[in-house]
Amino acid sequence: MEMKWEKKGCVFDPTQHGLPFGCFAYAKGPQAVAMDGFRRVYFSSCSQDSSRKYLSNVCYADFSLDFGEVRKVNRHEVIALGELGAFDEHGIFPVHIFRGEQRELWAYTTGWSRRVSVSAEGAIGLAISRDLGRTFQKVGVGPIVCASLQEPFLIGDPFILKVRDAFHMWYIFGLRWISPDQGHQAERVYKIAHATSTDGINWKREGLPIIKDSLGSDECQALPSVLEVNGIYHMVFCYRDAVGFRTEPGKGYRLGYAYSLDLVQWVRNDRLLGLPLTGEGWDGEMMCYPHLFDLGGRIALLYNGNNFGRNGFGLAILQSDINEHIIR
Amino acid sequence: MNNIPRFTWRKLGHLFSPESSLAPPWMHTHAQTPSVLQRRDCLRIFFCTRPPADVAGLFVSLIGFVDVEPNNLTQIIRVSQTPVLDLGQRGSFDEFGANPVSITTTENNDVRAYYAGWTRCESVPFNAAIGVAVSHDNGDSFRRLGPGPVLSYSLDEPFVIGSPKVRQFNKTWFLHYAAGCRWLKQYGRPEPVYRIRCATSHDGIVWNKEGRDIISLRLGADECQAGADIVEFKELFHMFFSYRQAVDFRNKDRGYRIGYAVSKNMRNWTRSDSSAGIDVSPEGWDSEMVSYAHVFHWNGTLYMLYQGNDVGRSGFGLAVLDSYEA
Questions:
Q1: Nearest CA in chain A to B88
Q2: Helix boundaries (H) for chain B
Q3: Which of A132, B41, B112, B230 qualifies as a FRET site for B213, CA 20 to 30 Å off?
Q4: Does domain B6-22+85-325 have CATH number 2.115.10.20?
Q5: Interface predicted TM-score (ipTM) over 0.90
Q6: Domain extent for A238
């Protein structure tokens, strides 16, 4: 049985709210956080630097509890980009918010810095908010997770879940850069992996993909989001072809799904999610960067649509039992 | 420490130059950061060297070696005809080469090369992280342990992790390295400031960073420190490192010199650069700069390999211990 969703459509268009720092488009990687009397969604929006290259900046929008109304957006800097030469000098996308102790919010960031032979390198940083999520201060100039012996580049997309005393992180790492043909820019291949920690800062990694490929070995998997419901762990992520994904219909991002009973073995079955591309509307050609979360006792999904979230993010609310299809 | 030792070195000459007739064409310029492997048949000196620059004027750096006669260390008997390690794969930390290199041997007689891998960046010229390659044939050929680095960036070591010097004492592995702390941009081309740091390990692969600068500053807040080579001698640990000004350093006055620090325990170091006992020559290949010392025991005494002017553009030389006062 596939899950049944009520699609609420696009709930936030970044061009309609006057985002700061010249952010002219994009609201990528929405992450919902329940606040006192409202819901805040953090995301990354894009400005352009003097060379007209994009810089991703962390922004947020505050919604009414039912997502029916946008009440305000940030007018200030939420998380500063990195200093000269730092891993997050050229952008932060995505950001994942984890609720720490003593009303702290921890922002796990994916920082980007530009390279010469390939477009960019990514690593995971940490910034902490002690003002209820208005601003975040970095724990250090450097990252907490970056390239290692078996994960050579492109570390990013962290999602954190604390299960009993252990921190779990799902994230992605790059396997290789490929060059489809002469003159074509290098394209990356990356996979979802898993790490554990006792403090949320120092991580033990396994260096292995954990989600089976459905598009072959060059499949790119991104932005895992995990929700526990009655002892079952559900992961929604996105995946795409390594080449042609920007322009060719059918090769761009789609939503994938896997579940786990033990946080170790994951069973992938994208069809069960019940959110295929429809070919029509704001999310007809692409669905990506999902966040699965609890919306006042219902299960909800924020995600981006066509063009990698250029026109904002949308909401879907689950109408069926998410555990219905699980064979224990 | 009350009594700081004093070394004096006697220079034995310019041992190898990339301009030598022995150098194959890919050793076009520079022979930097020498590091010794003691073999039965010879002393093998690994170093980093550069083929001609690309159209943009940029270099890559490759690891090669010369073998010298065990009973006459200034006599070269063989030069590697090819690099011992290829460049890293696209997008990886060592795509544009390796420099410096530091050699050690494991318990099961594998030879390991620790090297700083170089990548090219947009806003700053480069970044570095430390990788490991292993040889099962006594240093003739090497393969990477993995495609990524073994020592990379962390919260308070954000970039430019380089200049590895690996040593093993009492079954503990020590990696002394340079960690970048900031980039200076007010002088045109950005230049990094970096300091000597230390990590320890039980296997040479999984490292615990100590997370502190271990050598006090002498040239002010922008002093750069690197190449911390350590030798155990007369029941003390002696560190010969390199230091320079952060900017405008490609000249005699502000370029690299060899500094010195001493320790009883490998943790706390007392700096005393005047004890290093080696400086630039009045003229010649090492008259403007001496740096990246590598000190080793041989034939009952200590020898020092070091690079000369312009961070080893013209190669490296050899010195022997002349006197040691404790």
A1: A152
A2: 309-312
A3: B112
A4: yes
A5: yes
A6: 5-318
